[in-house]
Specification:
InterPro entries: Aminopep_P_N, Creatin/AminoP/Spt16_N, Creatinase/aminopeptidase-like, Pept_M24, Peptidase_M24B_aminopep-P_CS, X-Pro_dipept-like
Largest sheet: 6 strands, mixed
Radius of gyration: 27 Å
Strand order of the largest sheet: 4-3-2-1-5-6
Pfam families: AMP_N, Peptidase_M24
Keywords: Hydrolase, Manganese, Metal-binding
Number of helices: 17
Distance between the termini: 39 Å
Shape: globular
Helix content: 25-40%
Strand content: 5-15%
Structural class: alpha+beta
Number of strands: 18
Protein name: Metallopeptidase family M24-domain-containing protein
Cofactor: Mn(2+)
């Protein structure tokens, strides 16, 4: 099936008309976009990885570098039902054929792109002149010009508009990007299928990492003669003893299934490094300690003559591939060491985060404001910390908002509502519950968190303002949104420092949990008519994760 670019063009123009001043709505509207070019490293001729600019792909389905789009629309005319979409691609040169894969021929491209016409780049000036002659009062729209965030449109193209015989033609870069973001906020069936595919591939990659860890615990990774000495290790002989090795297996699993790009830099953080939200270094070994007498819980270290063993720790992997320019975004936190089992403290935090996610999932449906779910996750964290003793409770005998009769130890200062109002839970859950996802992992920011935001301040309690500082989605949910649901709990010394002396925190209990580092669990969900569809297929329930990581399953 050909990518439905023409449907996306119509959706974009519908959103564009909503943004235009009334006096400009009836004018011809022309979009001029440049595709991404192949990047090179600094001043050398070494190519870097090419990935098409998301908005260009949305309107064209084209992944050919250095391409251009020229799209004409006018409300109330035939172009309002079927806009003219002209795609311009480079002509294949001999050097292209010698050094790399050349661009397709015009005939081949016409079979794979949902556009009106395809031509080579040298036809662009005449195409602009033709449109100006047909529509002398046209308003041309571009993505923000002069911004390093978008491909550059050569001045010779924009100068044609400004220097044309028609004094009524004009160019604006104010409306196209917000219109595209609004159009991309809701996904169609084709887009959902691509996101689903990306999540299926990434889910399997997460499970592959867990199963390699589990095989090592069982001593089931065997190395043949000369492995690592006379010859390199083969993939089936690899152990995961470093963050980089876990990343390598994840990316290789995705690449084997045909995914060209990762949607973002993988985050692979072991031990307390899991408290850094976007830890992308992935360059450290796991935490190790000396072998204790009669300690045989982690046989993978001993199988190859190691004189050390893994310390119990978590490994947080936040990683997801793209499939045809559509993203996935999955986080799993898994036990390393301790025979593939969580420590009691890590298990308690893991199950608290799992509870936060379950409660969030149960609330998801069209119409509910994302802020309300964010607030509920903070409430669940506060209650969980009170159960664990990290946050003090009103009474040693009960966690309740009402003082038990005759309880002289009741201290209303540690009431759940007062702890929530203090905002200290933000030190342990500092980020947003989730964000829009589509072609970009943090998709359509201006539509997801609009300024001004007319959906806020509707008389609904939202709790402490710090809960929303880093929330990337602040809207009521709508059918066909795709969002992540990623609660977390972290023990970052930098974030804890400002609240460490809080009267609500039991310092001795907190110390027991700080070595956990951090736990995050993240799934991608599609908002449906009555709830959601979880597009992430790798499981996260505690017993299953431990079963896989211990080699029992």
């Amino acid at each position: 099936m050909v990518y439905p670019a023409s449907a996306h063009v119509l959706t974009t123009f519908r959103e564009l008309l909503k943004l235009l001043p009334t006096t400009e709505k009836a004018q011809p509207q022309i979009l001029l976009l440049a595709g991404e070019i192949t990047p090179f490293r600094n001043d050398t001729d070494r190519e870097q990885v090419f990935r098409q600019e998301s908005n260009f792909f949305y309107l064209s389905g084209c992944i050919v570098p250095s391409s251009y789009l020229l799209i004409a629309f006018q409300d109330g005319t035939g172009l309002s039902q079927k806009p003219s979409v002209e795609l311009f691609i480079p002509k294949a040169e001999l050097a292209d054929m010698m050094w790399s894969v050349p661009p397709p021929s015009l005939e081949a491209a016409s079979r794979t792109h949902d556009v009106t016409k395809i031509d080579h780049l040298e036809a662009i000036p005449d195409a602009i002149r033709t449109l100006l002659k047909a529509f002398p009062d046209a308003l041309f729209h571009t993505l923000p010009r002069g911004s390093p965030l978008f491909p550059v449109i050569p001045p010779e193209f924009t100068d044609l508009v400004m220097s044309s015989d028609s004094k009524d033609a004009a160019i604006s870069d104010l409306f196209l990007l917000p219109a595209l973001h609004q159009a991309r906020l809701l996904k169609d069936e084709y887009e959902i299928s691509l996101i689903r595919k990306a999540n299926e591939i990434s889910s399997r990659a997460h499970e592959v990492v867990m199963r390699v860890l589990g095989k090592a615990v069982k001593g089931a990774i065997e190395r043949g003669p000369g492995a690592g000495v006379d010859r390199p290790l083969l993939p089936g002989e690899w152990l995961i003893e470093k963050e980089a090795e876990a990343e390598a297996i994840f990316v290789a699993s995705c690449r084997r299934e045909g995914a060209v790009h990762q949607a973002y830099l993988p985050i692979v953080a072991a031990t307390t490094r899991a408290s850094t939200l976007h830890y992308c270094c992935n360059d450290r070994e796991f935490a190790w300690g000396p072998i204790q007498p009669h300690d045989h819980q982690n046989r993978n270290e001993f199988a190859h003559g190691s004189a050390r063993q893994l310390n119990p720790q978590v490994l947080l992997i936040d990683a997801g591939c793209e499939w045809n320019c559509y993203a996935s975004d999955i986080t799993r936190t898994m036990p390393v060491g301790n025979g593939g089992k969580f420590t009691p403290e890590a298990r308690a935090i893991y199950e608290l985060v799992l509870e936060m996610q379950k409660v969030a999932m149960d609330m998801i449906k069209p119409g509910i404001h994302w802020d309300a779910i964010q607030l509920m996750c903070h409430r669940i964290l506060v209650k969980g910390f009170q159960r664990l003793g990290i946050f003090k409770s009103p009474s040693p005998s009960a966690i309740s908002s009402t003082a038990p009769a005759g309880d002289d130890t009741w201290d209303p200062e540690h009431d759940e509502e007062k702890i929530l109002a203090s905002g200290i839970s933000s030190a342990f859950f500092p980020h947003g519950l989730g964000h829009s996802l589509g072609m970009d992992v943090h998709d359509v920011p201006s539509a997801s968190k609009p300024i001004p935001n007319t959906t806020l301040n509707k008389g609904v309690p939202i709790g402490h303002e710090s809960f929303y500082t880093y929330l990337r989605l602040r809207l009521p949910l709508q059918k066909n949104m795709v969002v992540t649901v990623e609660p977390g709990c972290y023990f970052s010394p930098h974030l804890i420092a400002p609240v460490r002396d809080s009267k609500h925190i039991d310092q001795e209990v907190l110390k027991k949990y700080e070595s956990v580092g951090g736990v995050r669990i993240e799934d991608v969900v599609l908002i449906t008519e009555n709830g959601y569809d979880n597009l992430t297929t790798v499981r996260s329930d505690t017993d299953w994760v431990e079963g896989i990581c211990s080699g029992a399953l």
